[in-house]
Amino acid sequence: MKRRKAGIGIFVIVLIITAVRVKSMDSHRISGRILAENIAGPGMLRLVEQSMQARARKTSVTEIAVKERKHPQAALTFDDGPDIRYTPLLLDGLKERNVRVSFFLLGEKVEQYPELVERMQKEGHLVGNHTYHHVQLNKLNETKAREEILKTNNLIYETTGVYPLYLRPPFGAWKKNLELCVEMLPVFWTIDTLDWKVQNTEKIVRTVQEQIEDGAIILMHDEYDTSVEAALQVVDELKNQEYELVTVDQLILP
Ligand SMILES: [Zn+2]
């Protein structure tokens, strides 16, 4: 009976420790989210530009961040999806390797393939916005540009239950005043693989190898077999080089 009581006692202590841990993890996650919500909106573009410039100059802030981390980090990002043929193959390969990436989706394709978007979310990937029709935002008036973004956000929210905070503007074309009316953080890239143009696995992998550095954001498209093959090879190679593969929010809000 005593042993049983002691057993119950230990079980209760373990439960309490677990509960405290889960709670502290939660508050960490929530504070990151609040931070993202606070910096999104007015002035966010400047913040991102500053952090990118700081990274390029390798200022002390970047050096401190790098010193605190054990491994260099890189983020794989995929635009223009989801693609009914190739996105599932990419998701399978990433799952096998236990790696999370960031997807910037077109609203019209979210509407077509909601089950793929749901899978992305379920498997821990970051789901971001790439406008509804792949439009060049700086060529549209503010109402139209806002519509392109918000319609896609709403579709993603309806599908995943999570309202997107990150947006990749097609062609990297961001409209300066847009930050005042959409509360999102634009995410650009540091390595353009030109995968859609070369459609050659070896060349895509080589481009990444030549340009990889800590904090890299790699731009790819999950609508070609060569891109999916290249992405999975890049994952294996970066892992061999001790890189930690993260989603873009982890790079922007470390
Ligand atoms: Zn695109």
From TrEMBL:
Decide whether keyword Repeat is in the record: no
BP GO terms, sorted? carbohydrate metabolic process
Origin: domain of life: Bacteria
Alphabetical GO CC annotations of the entry are: membrane
Query: Pfam families from the entry?
Result: Polysacc_deac_1
Q: Which residues form the NodB homology domain?
A: 72-246
Fetch the Gene3D superfamilies from UniProt: Glycoside hydrolase/deacetylase
Q: Which UniProt keywords apply?
A: Hydrolase, Metal-binding
Which GO molecular function annotations are given, in alphabetical order?
hydrolase activity, acting on carbon-nitrogen (but not peptide) bonds; metal ion binding
Output the InterPro entries linked to this UniProt entry: Glyco_hydro/deAcase_b/a-brl, NODB_dom, Polysacc_deacetylase_ArnD
Q: What's the protein called, per UniProt? A: Peptidoglycan N-acetylglucosamine deacetylase
Q: What is the lineage of its organism?
A: Bacteria, Bacillati, Bacillota, Clostridia, Lachnospirales
